[in-house]
Amino acid sequence: HMAAMRGMDVTVLRPDGFALPPAIMAKARAAAESSGGTLHETNDRHEALEGAQVIYAKEWGCTSDYGNGDIDRGLRAQLADWCVRDSWFDSTRADCRLMHCLPVRRNVAVADQVLDGPRSVVQREAYNRMTVQMAVLHSLLSDRKSH
């Protein structure tokens, strides 16, 4: 949603059967349109990755079955080819980077060689998030003292 609000061209790549809720997509689509960006949803990996600047990876799951190990294993078996690997970058821009919000399930969402490789900005992303979280916490605690 934030990328769409910033006027970026966003493609949501997802497996069959894992469409995002219509209300969320409508809100993100409206944000993209109002800021000059676009939002597209597909299950075609080649289409989605062609010329991409960033791959923002996230695991796919079903919230209704979260925490059920048997169902999770069955789901993961069906999604094994949805783990981001080096080959995903074959048709992206040469400077395409990998992002992930963390924590990440290694070799489930992203393969080790990508996560630890030169395309990954995940560690920098985590450091930036920590710095922002510290600033927010400081602000909240400082405001408390003045009341």
> By helix and strand content, what is the structural category?
alpha/beta
Low-confidence stretches: none
Number of domains: 1
Strand content: 5-15%
Could you walk me through the main structural features you see in this protein, from its secondary elements to its overall organization?
With 147 residues, the chain is an alpha/beta fold. Helix content is 41%, strand content 12%. It contains 6 helices and 4 strands. It has helices spanning 2-5, 22-35, 45-49, 69-78, 112-115, 122-145, and strands at 9-13, 38-42, 54-57, 97-100. The longest helix has 24 residues, at 122-145.
Write the layout of secondary structure elements.
Layout: H1 2-5, E1 9-13, H2 22-35, E2 38-42, H3 45-49, E3 54-57, H4 69-78, E4 97-100, H5 112-115, H6 122-145
Task: Give the key terms.
147 residues, alpha/beta, Rossmann fold, two-stranded parallel ribbon, globular
Task: Give a quick precis of the structure.
This protein has helices at residues 2-5, 22-35, 45-49, 69-78, 112-115, 122-145, and strands spanning 9-13, 38-42, 54-57, 97-100.
